[in-house]
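Morning F.,

Quick status update on the modeling queue. The single chain you submitted on Monday has been processed. Sequence for confirmation:
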Amino acid sequence: MKIFVHAADARNFTTAGQQLGLSSSAIGKAIARLEEHLGVRLLHRSTRTVTLTPEGACFLERSRRILGEFEAAELEVTSTRETPRGTLRVSLPLAGMLMMPALTAFMQAYPAIELDLDFTDRLVDVIDEGFDAVIRAGDVRDSRLMTRTLGPFRLMLVCSPGYIERRGEPRSPDDLRHHSCLHHRYATSGKLERWPLLNDGEPVDVDLPRTAVANTIEPLIDMAAADLGIACLPDFAIREQLRSGRLQAVLAGHTWHEGTFRLLWPSSRHMSSKLRVFVDFMGETLLSE
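Structure tokens below.
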């Protein structure tokens, strides 16, 4: 059953064999024995890939639940004596660099766990690329993955008090045409991130000046705090600047955006103690005030 789940997720016997330490022929023989026992075909084979039959898709979901219960039972009797340790490979968005205080605190709390962090806005394949977990914003629909909500965030327009003193405060989205605007460009697509502007409660597009553009968040924070313009930034990244007064919100009544950070991991993989403490720690720490 475990071999079947890995083969179905990987869509390739060779990849599944590498994950389990078996040859591709051993994977194929195990699947054939399972199909013979059940009396149905579970997978369609080709030279490059395998695909699920309708019966295979049904059996896959039940197999995942059964294996999950078995692995949970194993963890219950072993976790009390197991110290979380080993390498934890995690993919985070580029904005995840701003999560370093939480990640540093985790490393201090669990020194036996080695974090292998990959920062990218590319949509990684969690299973095929061998990640233990990924942190991403937005909805993720993949039946191969388990998920836990880490917390909400929102985008807000901010600038420094010095900028407002020098240039005045915008009172409507149209006023931004006459202000210095600092933009974030997505590193993967090259597109500018859209500012969530509202006019009379309706979304509105404004042709904003491009005073500066950066493909990471950190330079925009520094530029905004240095009186250079208005930036659209996630609230979790600028909490300290807002608390200290280095940045302040503008056009709060003319913006709306809510997002959610989620942590995801392969559903066919048992939740090891190192992953469990990582999920719990980040859920309690990452977006807390």
